[in-house]
Amino acid sequence: MSKVAVIMGSTSDLPVMQDAIDILKELGIEVDVDIVSAHRTPEKLFSFSKSAHTHGYSAIIAGAGGAAHLPGMVASLSPLPVIGVPVKSSNSIDGWDSVLSILQMPGGVPVATVALNGAKNAGILAAQIIGSANSEIMNNIISYKEGLKEKVIKGAEEVKKTF
């Protein structure tokens, strides 16, 4: 069974990060969810990050707002792929501080970064990473994308009927 850790800096990030949790489950991937604050629980961040690869995770999705150090700090300590979700929080500068904090990582410490509040895409990206080596997950992704296509085709047909 493939497994992804979905972590966030605080409970206020959960409404955004729920999209990653939901799509991962829909695609057949086990999800563990936790709060790991880079600034308020640094010891937990270090412990989690250094040992995540020994707990069966294939990827880590880390969501954070404001200064958004969580994804980069996790990536600096873990050998696993890290996908950062910038979260527009109440103390954010329109979310740009979060986007740039996650996006502008130094060489050698990559963090795949999705759009502001783009947790669903983070979940899909994690599934695609896993799917590259897991045919069951790959087939689930193919079916999901086929469903997206069908939804657009049906929408187009409805629009044509209206006009």
Automatic annotation (TrEMBL):
What's its job? Catalyzes the conversion of N5-carboxyaminoimidazole ribonucleotide (N5-CAIR) to 4-carboxy-5-aminoimidazole ribonucleotide (CAIR).
Q: Which intervals hold domain PurE? A: 2-152
Q: Which domain of life is it from?
A: Bacteria
User: Residues that bind substrate, according to the entry?
Assistant: 10, 13, 40
Which Gene3D superfamilies does the entry link to? Answer: 3.40.50.1970
According to the UniProt entry, what is the EC number of this protein? 5.4.99.18
Question: Cross-referenced SUPFAM superfamilies, in alphabetical order?
Answer: N5-CAIR mutase (phosphoribosylaminoimidazole carboxylase, PurE)
Name used for this protein in its record = N5-carboxyaminoimidazole ribonucleotide mutase
Biochemical pathway: Purine metabolism; IMP biosynthesis via de novo pathway; 5-amino-1-(5-phospho-D-ribosyl)imidazole-4-carboxylate from 5-amino-1-(5-phospho-D-ribosyl)imidazole (N5-CAIR route): step 2/2
Family annotation (Pfam families): AIRC (PF00731)
Protein family (similarity comment): Belongs to the AIR carboxylase family. Class I subfamily.
Q: Does the keyword Lyase apply?
A: yes
Mind listing the GO biological process terms from this record? 'de novo' IMP biosynthetic process
Highest lineage ranks of the organism? Answer: Bacteria, Pseudomonadati, Bacteroidota, Flavobacteriia, Flavobacteriales
What molecular functions are annotated in GO for this chain?
5-(carboxyamino)imidazole ribonucleotide mutase activity; lyase activity
Q: Which organism is it from?
A: Flagellimonas chongwuensis
Its UniProt entry gives the catalysed reaction(s) as: 5-carboxyamino-1-(5-phospho-D-ribosyl)imidazole + H(+) = 5-amino-1-(5-phospho-D-ribosyl)imidazole-4-carboxylate
Keywords annotated in UniProt:
Isomerase, Lyase, Purine biosynthesis
